[in-house]
Amino acid sequence: MAQSLSKTVVMVGMMGAGKTAIGRALAHALDVPFVDSDAEIEAAAQRTIAEIFERDGEDFFRQRETEVIDRLLSGPPCILSTGGGAFLSPTNRDLIASKGVSVWLDVPLDVLWERVRHKDTRPLLRTENPRATLNALFDARVAHYRRADIQVECGQGSIAETTTAVQRALFAFLKD
Questions:
Q1: pLDDT digits (tens, 9 = 90+) for 72-110
Q2: What dihedral angle (degrees, nearest 10) is formed by the CA atoms of 37, 95, 28, 114?
Q3: CB neighbours of residue 161 within 10 Å
Q4: What phi and psi, each to the nearest 5 degrees, are found at residue 52?
Q5: Cβ contacts of residue 163 below 8 Å, gap of 6+?
Q6: Residues 29, 33, 36, 37: is their CA dihedral positive or negative?
Q7: Contact (Cβ atoms closer than 8 angstroms) between residue 150 and residue 173
Q8: Mean pLDDT taken over the chain
Q9: What is the CA radius of gyration of the chain?
Q10: What is the sign of the dihedral through the CA atoms of 32, 37, 43 and 49?
């Protein structure tokens, strides 16, 4: 099955959408490597994303993110999970469009909130009202996510069910 994947598949969507969980399962199903751009950034910086945001700011982080995404897209085909804000950048979208296939995991806002509300690893949600912040991020980002090559509505199914749905949508897209 790995030979049928000629481009990197890039998972995009909101924090808590399941990009990492579904990406790992999809990589396993397709027998290709799984790479998480945030993990790559953390390894290179020897800091967490939250620490990078705090110390260097979001602009610095976004520059590193673009560099890492470009490097990973230039390598062998894999499943690449990106941070929630990565696909907002026109540069990143162009890189992904030219070298990969984007898959938006479209998850309802209430499901996202249930998934992220108890986590303190989300620097953008370290606000006085994290639910309102998540709502605002969702509203601002959905129009960008809609530009993805593939949209898979999910959120209620299991990882296996969602992975199967992504796999079907991906191969239907690649077949065209």
A1: 999 999 999 998 889 999 999 999 999 999 999 999 998
A2: 60
A3: 11
A4: -65, -45
A5: 22, 25, 26, 29
A6: negative
A7: yes
A8: 90
A9: 15
A10: negative
Dist. CA 51–CA 100, nearest whole Å = 29
Give whole-number Cα distances, 40 to 12, 37, 77, 89, 116, in Å. 16, 5, 16, 18, 21
Question: Which tokens hold the place of 141?
Answer: 């980002």
Report the 3 state secondary structure along the chain: CHHHCCCEEEEECCCCCCHHHHHHHHHHHHCCCEEEHHHHHHHHHCCCHHHHHHHHCHHHHHHHHHHHHHHHHCCCCCEEECCCCHHHCHHHHHHHHHHEEEEEEECCHHHHHHHHCCCCCCHHHCCCCHHHHHHHHHHHHHHHHCCCCEEEECCCCCHHHHHHHHHHHHHHHHHC
> Rounded to two decimals, what is the model's pTM?
0.89
Tokens 């995404």, located at residue: 69
Q: For residue 101, what are its two tokens?
A: 């296939």
